[in-house]
Amino acid sequence: MSTDVMIYASGLTKRYGSFRALDDVSFEVRRGEIVGFLGPNGAGKSTTMRILTCFIAPTSGTAKVRGQDVFDDTLAVRSSLGYLPQRAPLYLEMTVFEYLRFSARVRNLDESTFKKRARAVVEICGLAQSLSKEIRQLSHGYRQRVGLAQALIHDPPILILDEPTSDLDPNERTEFLNYLKQIGKDRTVLLSTHNLKEVEAACARAIIVSRGRVVADGPLDEIRAKSGRVRYVVSIQESVGDTPYRGKGTPPRQTEVEHALNSLAGVKKVNELPTDERAHAYELAGEDATDLRPEIFRLIADKGWVLLELHRDTQTLEDVFRQLTIGDERRNRQLGPVKDDDRRARDEEEDEDDEDEDEDESDDDEDSDSDDSDSDDDGKRNKR
Ligand SMILES: Nc1ncnc2c1ncn2[C@@H]1O[C@H](COP(=O)(O)OP(=O)(O)OP(=O)(O)O)[C@@H](O)[C@H]1O
Ligand SMILES: [Mg+2]
């Protein structure tokens, strides 16, 4: 494993009874990467993050943070990490300042370092007006700011943030994303969110999980092009009415244009689009992510035709996200038996496995993002 790999997950599987919350999840995050961790509700994002932050143990698989195993080197792992759980555990009776000082002491920060860091996190998280308030008096958004502040207080090289912006107002969200981009240059951030615009704003790479499996992992451009659905719209002048034709010879016939576009290398499909009588318009599907606009332009220029419009639509991240994960949502909305061979096959496979190994983790009490859950899994590590 390269020393640049800050977060390493290999074959992580987590079962609750016969239910597989994570199924062979593997990925790496390198120094300086801000990676969006995406997936629909219940996909396994928080479960993965809890494993990486030593809160729960997987049923099988390995996880390392900065080369340290999350079970064998828990203290070292925790000192490298800032973790914001989805529901941050806060001591409601403490003031914000007391809580930050407490978080700093737990991290072994001395008083003068704490004061320096406190100034920084108060600015990043917009907490100056709230320092003397008891946490119980704070709104959801401000509690989330406090949760973030505790994750940042020791200036960790790695941040694992589970929906850090879900309760923030748009101003604070923008501030926070700017901060992430700034610190992300020499840190490592794994950020789960349902806001795909945030991912586009802050992350160069995303990992998408669905039903416990990684279904996409790569630079956003590659993920957007993953479906292979790059679309071009081309419109060519067909008739000019009373005005002079600016192209070569006479305007082309429809069959001529269609034939020429179909014969371009890299074009998978050509569909005619409805237009008025002045233009031929087509929708072209590209074979891969290669940009065909230069070839399309060159063809039309060589023919001497008049190009009225040419544009390329790659799919948005949201389109691809929906394509990759839509099955989860359909399943949620079905009342009858789930018609999904893939899932059924997986469940059958699980049942078979269950007969082989008498394993039951249904009594796992990891709900709590609270520190109390730490010890909960020690007895299960031998399953790895
Ligand atoms: N302690 C538990 N016992 C049983 N099942 C659990 C437990 N914790 C999580 N699960 C299940 O594991 C699956 C993954 O949950 P997880 O919280 O990781 O999803 P998520 O991707 O974070 O979803 P969300 O976007 O809603 O936060 C879900 O089906 C969830 O119900
Ligand atoms: Mg979650």
Fold and architecture overview:
- This protein is an alpha/beta fold and about 375 residues long.
- The protein folds into two domains: about 5-225, Rossmann fold; about 230-315, Alpha-Beta Plaits (2-Layer Sandwich), CATH 3.30.70.1340.
- It is about 35% helix and about 25% strand.
- It has twelve helices and 14 strands.
- It has helices at about 45-50, 75-80, 95-105, 110-125, 140-150, 170-185, 195-200, 220-225, 255-260, 295-305, 315-335, 340-355, and strands at about 5-15, 20-30, 35-40, 60-65, 70, 80-85, 160, 190, 205-210, 215-220, 230-235, 265-275, 280-285, 305-315.
- It has a six-stranded mixed sheet, sandwiched between helices. It has a four-stranded antiparallel sheet with strand order 2-1-4-5, covered by helices on one side. It has a four-stranded antiparallel sheet with strand order 12-13-11-14, with helices on one face.
- Helix 4 (about 110-125) crosses helix 5.
- Residues about 340 and about 350-384 have low confidence and may be disordered.
- Magnesium ion (MG) binds near residues 46, 86 and 162.
- Magnesium ion binds near residues 45, 46, 86 and 162.
Quick recap:
With 384 residues, this protein is an alpha/beta fold. The protein has helices at 45-52, 74-80, 96-106, 111-125, 140-152, 170-183, 196-202, 220-224, 254-262, 293-303, 317-333, 341-356; strands at 5-16, 19-30, 34-38, 60-65, 68-69, 81-84, 158-162, 188-192, 205-210, 213-219, 230-237, 267-273, 279-286, 307-313.
